[in-house]
Every structure is written in structure tokens, then in C-alpha cells.
């Protein structure tokens, strides 16, 4: 058995290839007649350097293809040379400048009346009520009373809110020339109709209505304004 293994090893020895010595198992005559040739490919000249100039990462910025073009300067910040127009500044800051005003926005508040942006005028001791972008004469004279700094309005004044549909979610109430507290009876009547109330003097109430009616649909916000002469 040992003899057979030695003969098998002698037959397979020429076929062995050791790393780094692949020709060691072949005759020396074969090695001398066929010497190994190492071919090294010469690297071609890179075309990258001919098309793009090598520059540092922090070097000057790359110019465009049009070498005659001049880069535009960024707009200057801060105040203008002649001063900024306050009207332009506030117009730029107003996010609602492009939104159309409500159909019945209050343009001017007089001592005894109102002027709307649709041209309607109201004068006298009565106020106005605006519901669904429609303005009506509010017969408040004699139905609005002040007792101990508390404003109480008769239920007959809210007849339009009883029948209108859909009912507004918020009512801006102008209490005249000064800010007055609203009686619990008036608040409860409006709350039973599902209407929230926000009261203030008439000048501020007109401004608040214009702003809220611009942001929201006219069916959501309503206004009831007493004249400024009411105190």
C-alpha cells in the first residue's frame, strides 16, 4: 500500500503548482525556452487634464462658458438710499393684501352712522347689523339700555338671527363709543342660538369684523354695531 501511494505521488508531482513557483514542476529546458514575459501597458495620456484645469478646492469660482458675461449682484438688503416708503413696507408685510375685502366691509365709522365699501350709508341713532355679507338698519334706539355699566339689548333686536340660516358662528358686537359689559340675559339668548359673542367698542368692532370677514366666509362672521354716539 505504501509503495502504491509513492508511485501515485510521483505521477501527480508535475501537475502541482505552488504559489509564486508555478514553473517549478516543469523541466528546466521548458523554462529556458519559454521565458516569462511581463507586459506592462503604458497608461494613456489622460484627456481630463486637457479639458479641465486642475485647481484648488478653495480657488476662484468656475466661470461660465460665456467668459464675457458678468455675474449679477445680489439685491441689496436694508433701507433704500432715499428711505423706505412706510406704505410699501406695510403692504409687503400684509399677507391679506391680495385677498378681496368682504362685500359689506365697513369703510368709515361716523359719530352717528356708517359708510360701507359698497356705497351704502347709514345715519341716525340706530345701528347696523351685517349678516351673510348683507347690511341692515338695526333699530337699536330705545331697545339698547345701559345700567351700571352693563349693556342690555332687547330680544326683539335679534329677530334676524332667529330666522337666518345657516346661523353665524361668531357675532362681533359694537357697544358704541366705549366698551361695555354685556348682560347675562343677552349672552344667554345668543348662546342658545349657537352663536359666540365678542364685544368691544364700535370702532374696534368694525376693524375686527373687516379682518375676520376677510379671513373667513361671510356666513361664519356677523356684526351688530351701535353708533359711536351711543354711550
The number of helical elements comes to 7
Secondary structure: helix percent: 10-25%
Low-pLDDT sequence parts: 19-26, 28-34, 46-62
Q: End-to-end distance, in Å?
A: 131 Å
Strand order of the largest sheet: 5-4-11-8-10
Largest sheet: 5 strands, mixed
State the shape: elongated
Cα gyration radius (Å): 46 Å
In CATH terms, what is the architecture of the domain at 106-225?
3-Layer(aba) Sandwich
Describe this structure in words.
With 231 residues, this protein is an alpha/beta fold. The chain has a domain at 106-225: MTH938-like (Hypothetical Protein Mth938, Chain: A, 3-Layer(aba) Sandwich). It is built from seven helices and eleven strands. The longest helix is centred in the last third of the chain and has 14 residues, at 202-215. The protein is elongated, with a radius of gyration of 46 Å. The protein starts with a helix and ends in a 6-residue tail after the last strand. The relative contact order is 0.13. Mean pLDDT is 75; it is low at 19-26, 28-34 and 46-62. This is NADH dehydrogenase [ubiquinone] 1 alpha subcomplex assembly factor 3. It holds the Pfam family DUF498. Residues 63-83 have a biased composition (Basic and acidic residues).
Topology:
Layout: H1 2-12, H2 28-33, H3 48-51, H4 86-93, E1 106-109, E2 113-116, E3 121-123, E4 127-131, E5 134-138, E6 144-147, E7 150-153, H5 159-163, E8 170-174, E9 181-182, H6 184-192, E10 196-200, H7 202-215, E11 221-225
Parallel strand pairs: 7-9, 8-10, 8-11
Antiparallel strand pairs: 1-2, 2-3, 4-5, 4-11, 6-7
Amino acid at each position: 500500500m505504501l509503495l502504491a501511494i509513492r508511485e501515485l505521488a510521483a505521477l501527480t508531482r508535475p501537475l502541482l503548482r505552488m504559489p509564486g513557483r508555478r514553473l517549478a514542476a516543469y523541466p528546466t529546458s521548458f523554462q529556458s525556452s519559454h521565458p516569462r514575459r511581463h507586459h506592462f501597458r503604458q497608461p494613456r495620456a489622460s484627456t481630463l487634464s486637457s479639458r479641465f484645469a486642475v485647481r484648488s478646492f478653495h480657488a476662484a469660482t468656475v466661470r461660465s462658458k460665456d467668459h464675457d458675461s458678468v455675474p449679477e449682484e445680489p439685491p441689496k438688503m436694508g433701507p433704500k438710499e432715499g428711505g423706505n416708503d412706510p406704505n410699501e413696507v406695510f403692504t409687503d408685510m400684509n399677507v391679506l393684501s391680495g385677498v378681496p375685502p368682504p362685500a359689506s366691509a365697513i369703510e368709515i365709522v361716523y359719530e352717528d352712522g356708517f359708510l360701507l365699501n359698497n356705497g351704502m350709508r347709514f345715519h341716525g341713532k340706530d345701528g347696523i347689523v351685517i349678516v351673510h355679507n348683507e347690511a341692515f338698519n338695526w333699530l337699536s334706539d330705545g331697545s339698547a339700555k345701559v345700567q351700571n355699566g352693563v349693556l342690555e339689548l332687547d330680544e326683539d333686536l335679534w329677530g334676524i338671527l332667529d330666522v337666518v340660516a345657516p346661523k353665524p358662528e361668531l357675532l362681533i358686537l359694537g357697544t358704541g363709543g366705549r366698551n361695555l359689559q354685556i348682560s347675562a340675559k343677552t349672552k344667554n339668548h345668543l348662546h342658545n342660538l349657537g352663536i359666540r359673542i365678542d364685544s368691544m367698542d364700535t370702532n374696534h368692532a368694525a376693524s375686527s369684523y373687516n379682518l375676520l370677514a376677510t379671513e373667513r366666509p361671510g356666513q361664519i362672521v356677523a356684526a351688530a354695531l351701535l353708533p359711536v354716539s351711543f354711550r
